[in-house]
Specification:
By secondary structure, the protein is mostly beta strands. The chain contains no helices and 6 strands. Strand 2 and strand 3 form a beta hairpin. The chain is elongated, with a radius of gyration of 18 Å.
Amino acid sequence: MASRNRPASSVQDDLFNEEVSLLLPPRLAINGRRLGSPVRQLAVPALRETCRLIPFSIWRVNGCETSLPTTSD
C-alpha cells in the first residue's frame, strides 16, 4: 500500500485546511422488495457533520480526506 504524503506540520493551518460541513446520507439497515413493494428500515438518519479537510497526494492523485467521529450503533 502506498503511503500518503501529508504536510510537514498538521497543526499549522493553511489555505486548504478548512472546516466544512458535510451532509451524510441516511444509512439503511434493510433495503429491498417483498411481493413487489419496497421495504426499507432506517439504521441511521441523515446527519450533518462539521470536519476539517486534510489534503493528501498518492501517486498522481490529489485530494482531501477527513476523519469523522465514531458513532455507536
